[in-house]
Every structure is written in structure tokens, then in C-alpha cells.
Amino acid sequence: MAAMDSQMKAMREMHEKMVNAKTPEERNALMAEHMKAMQEGMAMMNMMGGPGMGGKPMPGTMNERQRMMERRMDMMQSMMQMMMDRLPTPVTK
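Request: output the structure for the sequence above.
Response:
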């Protein structure tokens, strides 16, 4: 759980950097770091596994499994937001 919290914190910090980048050049400079954070997040989620996700059933009580699944979903949502924020902003006329 501590490793997951640390990963979520790193992903949030990376997201903040991306959002706060003022120029496309700044954003591009952060892309490698951003991709590394995303890959580490995916690796962690793959290790967590879960029924229906190709992993083994999670050990622990029902409450522990519920908390783990909630954290996994939070991480997935965070990663999806990071991917959306990477898209170029549409130009409206």
C-alpha cells in the first residue's frame, strides 16, 4: 500500500508539472518523465492484478480487497486524466 501511495503521489506531481507547463516546448521536455511515471503506474497495476484482470485473486479480508480495488481504480482514473491532458488542446474558431 505504501508503494502505491508513493506512486500515486509521483503521478500527481508529474500531472501538475504537465498542466503547469506554459509552452509546448516545456511540455515536450517533460514527456519522457511523464511516460516513465505512466509505465511505472502500469507495472504496479499489473502486479496488483485481480480477478478478471489476468492476475491472481487478491488475499486479505473483504475490506482490504475493497480498499485495494478502490486505490487501483483511483490510479487508473489518474492515468486516464494524464493521458487526456497530453492531448493537444483543440483550436476553436
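The chain has three helices and no strands.
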